[in-house]
Amino acid sequence: MKSNKKVLIFTYYWPPSGGSGVQRWMYFAKYLKKIGFNKGDRASYPVWDETLLEEVADIRVIKTTTREPLRWYSLLTSGNSQKGLPQGEVKRQSLLGKLAAYIRGNYFIPDARKGWVSFAVKAAQKVLKEESISHLISTGPPHSTHLVGLQLKAQFDLNWWVDFRDPWTEIFYSKDLYRSQKAIQKDALLENKVLQTADGVLTTVGGALHNQLSVKAPNQNFVSIPNGYDVQLMQEVQATKPKEVFHVVYTGLLTQNQAYDSVLHALNNIADQQAIRFSLAGKIAPEIISNIRAALPKVEVVYQGYLSHKEAIGLMKSAHLLLNFIFTGAQTQMISGKLLEYMATHVPVLSIGDPNSEAGKFISKGSFAKMLDANDRDGIQTFVSQLAAKKETLRNDFPNIESWSREVLTQRLVKEVFLETKY
């Protein structure tokens, strides 16, 4: 499937930014380039991963400056312009935290990255006047990125698709931002205008999320293309599972908004019979690591900090059990790219969340993978104990895992978005 069409992608997160948010369009761009499409640092990133630059070395990238009020938010909450960038939760324990949440919710609409919009529009106008570009993609969060697409759609003849990696106004933590009715209405108006103006809407998950969005834009075209895993990376990274311990691994963001206590309880119960190593990697607050160590006095707890994507894959493949914790309130909103990578390792997976959610249904297809409710302590204990007893022999196979590869999903993107719509 070859094309000489050009697509202009607007994404705030791009290498050397690390984390899951950057990987969706980084890999789409990588494989769009392979198929034949062309893609025509002052941002605040919570994590950095210089190794991801290798994946986009031959992709044309246009970078702009930005006005970044989120730096001041970070300074206010943490004393560091990068350390306190919010991810996955709103910290409201202190008076300062409540004030910061109020400012974020009422003055940063739709979000604190909106200072980038005018610079991105100006850079895009120059490119669009000089080159023949057929498609425009804007991906959020930050959903202010879609405001770039909104302005350009009004000025140029473009086929514009918006990508909602996460929900916008209905994101699970919005209720914690002390938003006034005026702020809520302003945000909803922006979202509705984007949804109704775009030529199509991409999401990582369908089901309930598509139902919510279709109420706001009944005539819109919704397409679900999930995050995936990179076959090349998965094949080239090798790792050995330790024989002397039951190796449990968690990678990614971990917050107080995720229910992990039941799993700690299960690990603690088998620690007398089985040596356990619990390895964690990602952006995790020191107090959470301290709490985990206190809850697991007989377990070797190893916090490896933030790892590059390649190193994280290696850690996953060294595990006997991979853990995942769905954000409370986000049960129906997403299937993370991490879950796809977990499945591709063939390591057994235990995820805590709603078994009936889209993610729960996806996980249930694995031969040794489960989504269990946080209150199902007996079920969690049984699953963990079974794994610990047979750690050398159990393998998690997922049917047609190849169809979830980044390259195959990019081919779907081309067919369902670029080739099936007008130029």
Could you describe the 3D structure shown?
- It is a single chain.
- With 423 residues, the chain is α/β, with parallel strands linked by helices.
- It folds into two domains: 6-228 and 405-418, Rossmann fold (3-Layer(aba) Sandwich), CATH 3.40.50.2000; 231-401, Glycogen Phosphorylase B (Rossmann fold).
- 39% of the residues lie in helices and 13% in strands.
- It has helices spanning 20-35, 69-78, 95-107, 117-130, 145-155, 181-197, 208-216, 231-236, 261-270, 286-295, 309-317, 337-345, 358-363, 377-389, 406-418, and strands spanning 6-10, 38-39, 135-140, 159-164, 200-203, 222-224, 246-251, 276-281, 300-303, 321-325, 349-352, 369-372.
- The strands form two sheets. Strands 2-1-3-4-5-6 form a six-stranded parallel β-sheet, sandwiched between helices. A six-stranded parallel β-sheet has the order 9-8-7-10-11-12, sandwiched between helices.
- Strand 8, helix 10 and strand 9 (300-303) form a beta-alpha-beta unit.
- Helix 1 crosses helix 15 (406-418), helix 5 (145-155) crosses helix 6 and helix 9 (261-270) packs across helix 14 (377-389).
- The longest helix is centred in the middle third of the chain and has 17 residues, at 181-197.
